């Protein structure tokens, strides 16, 4: 398969997986719809390991769609070490880059959790296997962050963090049906494999919670600002029902594919191929 054909196939698979599930605002059982026609795709992988034993836990496949430099939607597929699909995560970025609508479906047991935005409110939901759906409505403010929106928050405040400042925010956790006060700060700088890197720490703002809740350390390339490594609680669990691994992640460099987009008058689909 040629590179162009491969990128087209990847795009079609991502779009099909996204579009087949509808709008999360309408029903917690449906994934967020993509918003807007993308003009580029960014794909990369990540492998998770037990930080103590080094055992290979699972792999992630990331597919991100961009329009005019802004992320439109994202899909993450979680696979076991044999390649079988364990879970899927869908995010749709619309008016709030820091607060994407999100849904995670565990394919092993059917556990479901996610977030939708309704006006100035945040709706967190979860549903255990064979259980009743649970939801909670919380106020949405400028400090709220949902899942992959944390990366956008870091990019928005990159210079602020590099200057040594601490960045406060509220992290929405649908598995807990609540938001918690967190903070991010730069720990230091180094060179890894010839690349300048910065290590950021994300942790609860409360001293008490920092004593009992594990921190998250993220390593990013200072030139591309792409994540290189991660250690902490993962967004995917080892035993279903919202439980999480503590993992060390190794993240590959991204591959970017540019997509040609036609006007609606010339092509109703908008997408005509990869360049």
Describe, in short, the structure shown.
The protein is mainly beta and 275 residues long. It is 13% helix and 48% strand.
Can you describe what's shown?
The chain has 275 residues and is mainly beta. It has one domain (3-274). Helices cover 13% and strands 48% of the residues. The protein has helices at residues 3-19, 149-156, 158-162, 207-212, and strands at residues 40-49, 56-67, 70-79, 85-92, 101-106, 112-118, 121-127, 134-139, 144-146, 167-173, 178-192, 195-204, 216-221, 227-233, 246-251, 255-261, 271-274. The chain has a 17-stranded mixed beta sheet that branches. The longest helix has 17 residues, at 3-19.
The shape is globular
Mean pLDDT across every amino acid position: 83
Regarding quaternary structure, how should these chains be classified?
single chain
Number of DSSP strand runs:
17
Strand content: over 45%
List the helices and strands in order.
HEEEEEEEEEHHEEEHEEEEE
Distance between the termini: 15 Å
Q: What's the number of domains?
A: 1
Profile the largest sheet. Answer: 17 strands, mixed
Low-confidence segments, ≥5 residues, pLDDT <50?
1-29, 262-275
Rg, Å, rounded: 19 Å
Helix count equals: 4
Q: Bin the helical content.
A: 10-25%
Please identify the structural class as seen in this structure: mainly beta
